[in-house]
Design brief:
mainly beta, 4-stranded antiparallel sheet, 2 helices
Length: about 230
């Protein structure tokens, strides 16, 4: 079967996934304007500055999901997981210079979207089933190790950097709320998001004094302002 706009654009038919793909998450490299995409069927893709068709960079994953690009180095951090609640989730790094994928940590249960800290010292990654957030150190004396960063607050789905340096927004899926936290694992703000829908919350992104809220179960993006 050949991919065409008529066949694929706007479809929700998972049987067409091997032909049409199913993009799950996006992240820009703000230095190069490249858009990186994780796709359930096609793996890691990139679209260049001028747009056009995506180029596949790597494949062969179980369920490639969350992604974050660290624009200073260009490294791409992403999670690979299964569709069952086991402990086979992994945090991966794609290096665009060597075009190699490295496993940074494994044993995650329901790994969600990761986020690199603004100082580039560590990556936070949701461990959804275990209801905690893991921290993998990229720099410093703990470099190359991971630890439980935060726990006992719900089911974290995706993490995004906040506008303020050193802060993050965590989408707590089943509790339908956004948590603003800092690098010391302190909750700075809790925003209930049940007003957008009666479904779960997948991502909370801060931009221009507003929170943009997404869910895989809705066909719209919610906007929250104070």
């Amino acid at each position: 079967m050949i991919r065409t706009k008529k066949l694929c654009d706007g479809t929700n038919d998972l049987e067409l996934g091997p032909t049409c793909g199913r993009p799950v998450a996006l992240s820009f490299n703000y230095k190069t304007s490249d858009l990186y995409i994780t796709d359930v069927f096609f793996g890691l893709l990139v679209v260049g500055f001028n747009g056009g068709l995506a180029t596949q960079l790597s494949g062969g994953y179980k369920f490639l999901s969350g992604i974050d690009v660290e624009s200073y180095t260009g490294n791409v951090y992403m999670t690979d997981d299964s569709l069952t609640p086991d402990s086979t989730g992994r945090l991966l790094k794609y290096d665009p210079r060597t075009q190699r994928v490295t496993v940074l940590t494994s044993g995650l249960a329901g790994a969600g979207g990761p986020a690199v800290s603004s100082d580039r010292k560590y990556v936070l990654v949701p461990d959804y089933v275990n209801k905690n957030i893991q921290r993998y150190w990229l720099q410093g004396p703990k470099r190359g190790t991971n630890e439980v960063f935060m726990t006992n607050f719900g089911s974290p789905k995706n993490i995004k950097r906040a506008v303020n340096d050193g802060e993050f927004w965590v989408a707590v899926e089943k509790q339908a709320q956004g948590l603003r936290i800092n690098g010391s694992a302190m909750v700075l703000q809790t925003v209930p998001l049940t007003q957008f829908s009666d479904t779960t919350v997948g991502v909370v992104q801060e931009m221009n004094d507003a929170l943009y809220v997404g869910s895989s179960q809705t066909d719209f993006v919610g906007v929250y302002t104070n």
